Task: structure prediction
Amino acid sequence: MSISDSMRLLHKSLDYLDTALPNVTPEETSYLDREDKAVSALYQEESTSKSQNHAASTARYPALQNRRLYRAWMARKALSNAILSVQAINDLEGALKTDMKNPAPTVLPSNLFRREKADTLYRMQSALYNLSDAQGSLREFILSEAYRPQSVLTGDQPLKVAGSAYGAMNYLAQAMHCQLAHLVLDPP
Result:
């Protein structure tokens, strides 16, 4: 399979995931963003206190997690980061935007690499981290929905979402393999 075929299938998998995930309203997104930051700050504050008693954050975090769209929100955030980092593979400007939105692996400017193929491979590797995070969030989302009486995922959707997340990782790995072969085998 060629790099372009792998990347085309990767984009197709990400497009499916983007349409399969439920949308989270702006109001709910705003609430989840604020509450997630507040619980994290509370946990940090409790961690630095002498007693290191996490009673408040331990009580508050499950309430956040039990909100109907919490796992969908987490999956959507991770998927958005993955999509941005995949788009950045062939777009240095996009790579720098991805780095500012997600502090995962730092994307370095192209002039720090002697060869364009090495730079592309580096951005592929960065995207792999984000895809891995998205796959984990999607897995948690699917599992949480499996136990809900009225799941937003119906029929074979859970299997398709899991398969698309797994496929996305494999397509990127295949593209990386091809890119590495070109890097090693092509003359400078």
Notes: The mean pLDDT is 84.
